[in-house]
UniProtKB/TrEMBL annotation:
Keywords associated with the record: Coiled coil
The keyword Coiled coil belongs to this UniProt entry's keyword annotation: yes
GO molecular function: DNA binding; transposase activity
Coiled-coil stretches: 49-113
Protein name: Transposase
Gene Ontology BP terms: DNA transposition
Keyword 4Fe-4S: no
Organism, as annotated: Legionella worsleiensis
Superkingdom assignment: Bacteria
Location of the Transposase IS110-like N-terminal domain: 1-73
Gene3D superfamilies for the chain: 1.10.287.1490
Length: 139
């Protein structure tokens, strides 16, 4: 239950006194009359997908920075070092994308959401991963 809604319900009921007994009655009345939505926690897999998509975004931003630096570097040694870093970063990005795909595939709810999202024209797997990570349920 949203405490703000309960407080406003108590105000609307013209309840002026406040103690534990009165509060309990108000909360019970609110639950009976207003039929509030049941709060559902975010599944652990979805939280993990969210963390991994954030990491993926950070790694991609770093990759863009390294590629931009690579274009301006003239020295062979520095260029070679940057190319190695770019290569490692690309491999790590691929690993993270695979981990996200595996997590989504291992959870029926997330898998169904992914299937639904990717059926929409213009939404690819990475966009679907981000939507799944940020929204509680696309249904």
């Amino acid at each position: 239950m949203n405490p703000f809604q309960v407080k406003n319900f108590a105000r609307a009921s013209l309840v002026r006194n406040k103690n534990d007994s009165i509060d309990a009655k108000i909360i019970a009345q609110f639950g009976q009359r207003m039929d509030p939505r049941v709060y559902q926690t975010t599944p652990a897999e979805q939280k993990e997908v969210k963390d991994l998509t954030k990491l993926l975004d950070m790694l991609k931003a770093q990759l863009v920075q390294l590629n931009n630096q690579l274009h301006s570097i003239q020295g062979k040694i520095a260029r070679k070092a940057l190319e190695k870093m770019v290569d490692k970063l690309e491999k790590e990005i691929t690993k993270i994308e695979k981990k996200i795909a595996d997590l989504v595939a291992s959870n029926e709810s997330l898998k169904e959401q992914f299937k639904l999202l990717t059926s929409i024209k213009g939404i690819g797997k990475l966009t679907a991963f981000h939507i799944i990570a940020l929204m509680p349920d696309v249904n």
